[in-house]
Amino acid sequence: MVALVSTVAYLGLEARPVEVQCQVAPGMPGFTLVGLPDKAVGESRQRVSAALTAMGLALPPKRITINLSPADLPKEGSHYDLPIALALLAAMGVIDAEQLGDFVAVGELALDGRVIPSPGVLLAALHASALDKGFYLYLQRRISPLSLTPTHFGRSMRCEIYFAPHGAQPPQAEAA
User: Sign of the C-alpha dihedral, residues 167, 169, 171, 176?
Assistant: First the structure.
């Protein structure tokens, strides 16, 4: 199964759509990141792995491939951590991959699982709104698989904002 998560690449004052594709397949264990990532994006392997460990999860002993599409668009910055982690969690079956299709995700992960604010959030939110998608913005101590249930608010933009500590139940999803 290939899990898909939407995010953005920043080009000046423009946000371009990027699809994070994750495949977990049998084979020699490894974590490969492709799609023209810069150094900060390449380092997301370590941040995502550490954040999953902080959540009490381990990377599966399989071949993990992350593709950032389109492959010819340069990907810069640490804001790809959260969409990579979400795609990996979906490919591992920890969270529902279907729910992720309606959202755009951005955010840098700390080693303890916290999401650190990253620049360009407003551009990503405007991009999500233009596509009539929600926007994941986590403001909590740690990401928990339980906190990945969508809630909606606002008229033109759906946004995820949680202030709950690690392991707390998120608010229930509201009708769109």
Answer: positive
- Contact of 25 with 86, CB cutoff 8 Å: no
**pLDDT grade for 137, boundaries at 50, 70 and 90:** low
Q: Is 2:64 a contact under the CB 8 Å cutoff? A: no
Distance CA 37, CA 68 (A): 8
Q: Could you read off the pLDDT of 8-52 as tens digits, one per residue?
A: 999 999 999 999 999 999 999 999 999 999 999 999 999 999 999
Give me the amino acid identity at 80. Y
Share of the chain above pLDDT 90, in %: 51
Q: Say if CB 41 and CB 80 are below 8 A apart.
A: yes
Q: H helices then E strands: how many in the chain?
A: 5, 9
What proportion of the chain, given as a percentage, has pLDDT over 70? 77
Q: DSSP of 42-107, one letter per residue?
A: HTHHHHHHHHHHHTT----SSEEEEEEESTTS-B-SSTTHHHHHHHHHHHTTSS-HHHHTTEEE--
Q: Is the peptide bond before 171 cis (omega within 30 degrees of 0)?
A: no
Q: How much is the CA Rg of the chain, to the nearest whole Å? A: 15
